[in-house]
Amino acid sequence: MTRIYSFLLFLAFVYSANAQNNIVVKGTVIDINTQLPLELATVYFTTVKDSTIIEYATTDKNGNFLINTKKFDKPVFLKVNYTGYQAYFEEQKGLTESKDFGKLYMIENANVLNEVIVKSEAPPITIKKDTLEFNAPSYKVRPDANVETLLKQLPGFDVDNSGKITVNGREVNQVLVNGKAFFDKDGAIAIKNLPADIIKKVQVSDFKTKKEELAKQESTSDYSSINITIDEKKNKGYFGKVLGGYGSDEHYESSLMMNFFKNKQKISVLASSNNINSTGFSMDEVFDNMGGGRNAKGGQGASSGGRGITQSTLAGINYSDDWTRDLEFMSSYNFTNAVTKNDSKSNQVSFLPTGNIVTEADSKTKNENTGNNANFQLEYKIDPTMRLVVAPNLNQSNSSNTNSSFSSSVDENGDALNESTSSSHTTGSNTNFANSINFNKVFEKKSRNLSIVFNNNNSKNSSNGINISETIFHQDGKPNDERNQNAKNTSKSDTYAIDLEYTEPITDSLRVRFGTDFNWQNSINDQKTFNFDEDTDQYSDLNLSLTNYTTSKQNSISPKVGITLQKSKFTLNLNSRTSIVEFDNHSFYLNQATDLNKRYMLPYGNAQLRYKFNRSKNLTFKYDYSNALPSATQLMPVANLNNPLNSVIGNPDLNPIEKNSAGIDFKNFDFRTRSGYSVYIRGDYYNNDVVSTSIYDDSGKRNTTYVNISGTYSTSIGGNWNQQIKKDAHTLRYGLRLSGNYNFDKGFTNAELYSAKSIVVTPSVYASYDYGEVLSIAPSYSLSYNETRYENFSRDATSNVIHRINLQTTSYWPANLIFGNDFGYTYNSNISGDFKKDFFLWNTSLSYGFLDKKLYAKVKVYDVLNQNQSATRTISATSIRDEENTVLKRYVMFSLAYKIGNFAESKKGGRGRQRGGF
Description:
Blueprint: H1 2-19, E1 22-31, E2 42-47, E3 53-58, E4 64-70, E5 76-81, E6 88-92, E7 99-106, E8 125-128, E9 131-135, H2 147-153, E10 157-159, E11 165-167, E12 170-177, E13 180-181, H3 188-193, E14 199-206, H4 210-215, E15 224-230, E16 236-247, E17 252-262, E18 265-274, E19 309-324, E20 327-350, E21 357-383, E22 386-411, E23 416-442, E24 449-473, E25 481-505, E26 510-533, E27 538-542, E28 548-566, E29 570-589, E30 592-614, E31 617-628, H5 632-635, E32 639-643, E33 646-649, E34 657-670, E35 675-687, E36 689-696, E37 702-709, E38 712-727, E39 730-749, E40 752-771, E41 775-791, E42 797-811, E43 817-828, E44 838-850, E45 855-862, E46 871-875, E47 879-885, E48 891-903
Parallel strand pairs: 1-7, 12-15, 33-37
Antiparallel strand pairs: 1-4, 2-3, 2-5, 5-6, 8-9, 9-14, 10-11, 11-12, 12-13, 14-15, 16-17, 16-48, 17-18, 18-19, 19-20, 20-21, 20-47, 21-22, 22-23, 23-24, 24-25, 25-26, 26-27, 26-28, 28-29, 29-30, 30-31, 31-34, 32-33, 34-35, 35-38, 36-37, 38-39, 39-40, 40-41, 41-42, 42-43, 43-44, 44-45, 45-48, ...
């Protein structure tokens, strides 16, 4: 509580300090002829010098606007825009004191004399209810820039090296194109591959679930959503890019993307194949598909890489169209195939009260996965008051995994405990069908609403594996474990859920919700294991100790009630429900039936308060109380003997997991200074958390079960600050991030309880400098410090530090030449002394454009210094594990990329010219 109180005092101090430099500007926007107020007119101030936006607001139903802004002592324009009216503007010497502009009169375009030519300026920012809209042509980018480059120019936007987008401090988790998904929800394909010069508007709003969207309810999410709209003049035609490359050590890459747009109809096709660890489709204009370049999700450039070398193939098609005025359709299909080969070595020290155990292991694996995924969404406007959205998804995949491994364990004196050798080959298949049906009915009375949501998920998995293994025990006189077996597993799972909710407005600002959730879950797992019969030369001898048939059924009904109180400055949401659960489990093992039937009554509740000081400054408080059931595996008192070195059995006396969560977020962005900051504090507290506990015998074999632990918690606090400075051709962005975590955990080691207190602090600083369309430089640095202290344990404390430095540079000069570099340095004190604790990862790319920049010839070098490595150390409360895997090393790649494009623009044209795509 002391930390929360201090945090609130800090917020109050910051707000008070800012208020002393603030002024208030107000007025009323009115139609000059009717004398009626105009609601949702956009009112904003810009600098006279370069039209930089200082602050903006929208008018209410009475035409009134109120702008809180900081003092500004240079000339500014006051501008007002409203659809169908002439733009209004007047110049002011500055904003140095609060002022009431009184009535501002707007003139309809229709009332202007025919011989007068009206040139209406599209405002760079427009506010439409809860949506912030940017006029894309108002922001200058390179002629061949993509959407990501455009987003970086918009006030309040930040796109980091990993492609994560934030707007005014809020992370974006959905990117749509003309209101529809473009292959993937996170929008990576859209922002990397769509050209900026076909974009008309970028709209930002709070992310809403489909239920909230249809019911026109306010968002309860902490995320933002972006919708990119394409200029109607450039919404007919096609554009795309084809790429092919070959390099040293038989490395290759290839990709294709084509888009066919015809008004509402959009068809996009993509394909990709490579063996350089790029499994998705998110090409960068500098490094294309290069793994570890600017497509690396780590965002630091210097990364120790993944596990193994992956050869992947991907193909997909995305289709969307408005079949009629009331019927919209979207669909996509993706085919994927990935083959990964990896050699791994590890060394693990397990800490026990009776003495440590050291285990060394190595393995060779080859995994192949093939998948087919189809998504559909049909949205039907039954009438003006009813909408229906059906969104089925079908996923089918096949896998083939081959593994050979060896491990050995010794005690702290070096005496052998056990060793194991195994080889296996397993094939499997998975089929999953999921569907969501959203129905919504709005009534004549505002905010009265009926919502019905149905979800189902049906899956079937099967596997067939051959396993040959031998485990030798050197202590206790325990007999060796030799296996030559065929394991056949089949599992089915069916889940159905219905969410019924009715909303009734009590007043204009108060709404009450009533409803019930119904859930039905049923799963079956049939595991059969056959020993090899030398007499028949077949796997025909059923092994009863490794054969089990289990079923689990969970049905629940959850009555719920909630209220929403919405005022001009704040929104309060309160929700409560009680879940009445029947949880029935059955097992048939060793010819014995075991039934475990449980009944629960579990409460749930949450509260959310949002306070908006203004459009760009807000405070959010959240609290959530929830319960979660242990899994059937954790509950059932039936042994699992699949692992010769670890026998697992459930605990039927486990209680539900009880969790309390709370958090405060404060976000602020100043359009005048193009700077913003956000701070947060969050915490989770657990009762009856479920953890595993193992007891080791003298041979190093474990016997594991599950227990409840109470009183564990975690807290986090952090924030970020960023600013953008623009002067002529120079643009400088820089920022700071800081996050800290404190965790108190409990656990068991050889049945003895221990506790662990850990702290993680991660500060980082980043910057970018752009000189016009010629040069871009982006350095960054981050530090991560981790310390854990133990009580009632063989270790007192552990700590480690990680430094990451990255420098990205891109030059677009001389003309037609693009030269890019990603240089990273990583130091990790956590890595074992057997490996280098630091390494450099330097990637470089040089390309030249021909045929008016439609054809690019490129040479790229990955890991120029040949230092990439995959050594990792994982520290937990009970062990330290060092591991090394196969990693992608230095290669040179030569490639050609060709851009294709043809837009059917109007004769008057729009921004840009008919051009070749990206």
